[in-house]
Amino acid sequence: MKQQKQRRARGWLRWTAVVILLLVAVVLIFNQQIKYYLTESYRPQITRQAIQKNQAKQSSANYDYSDAQDLSLQTVAKARAKKQPINIIGEITVPAIDLTIPIANGVDNTTLALAAGTMRPNMKMGEGNYALAGHNMANGSKVLFSPLYSKSKVGQKVYITDLKNVYEYKIYERKIIDPSEVEVVNNTKDKIITLITCDETGAHRLMVRGSYVKKMSFNKAPQQVQHNFSSKYTTGRNS
């Protein structure tokens, strides 16, 4: 009887080990797909009240982009596991390249796993240099700032919103820069938007800049822009 129990115990341990190995193999094989899904399926509930509350937290966020690491499955999973992982203050859409994601305070790894991050504290939409960073997941990915790297062109329109107003910009520059060129996120007298993401190697950065065009109330924005902001997330426009 004792030997039978020992054999059963060994058999159970072997099957457990096999199952664990299979699960590990699946995660390794589908690492990218799982990571893409966790990021792309992120649908935060955004309200005007939440944005106003989060805007007050801007000074306490981390704005050191050099601390940002390559996006790992562990980072994305950890970000999704938290009930409210990031402080969302708006949204950005580039209709021509099918890019629509949240904007959140700072550029810590958790924030950049799910959103575009502000690169300076206390920035205001439609004023000075509104600088944002986002991950490029390369290989034709459609999540985060990946389309910005693969599809953005001079002349395309960029829109950002705080749910009350929409701010329109027009891309006038697309340039590969060194990571050391941190001055590109400094404030400017001109009203511009600066979007930063990595190139495919991670050794350099893509800088996309747009000039300010106009500000409009949310319900006066182009229908495609309203659709992009409204269809991608549960935004609570009337709140």
From TrEMBL:
**Record bears the keyword rRNA-binding:** no
- Bilayer-crossing residues are 12-30
Per UniProt, which keywords does this protein have? Hydrolase, Membrane, Protease, Thiol protease, Transmembrane, Transmembrane helix
One Pfam family cited in the UniProt record for this chain? Sortase
Q: The organism sits in which domain of life?
A: Bacteria
What NCBIfam families does this protein's entry cite?
sortase_fam (TIGR01076)
Its name, as the record gives it, is Class A sortase
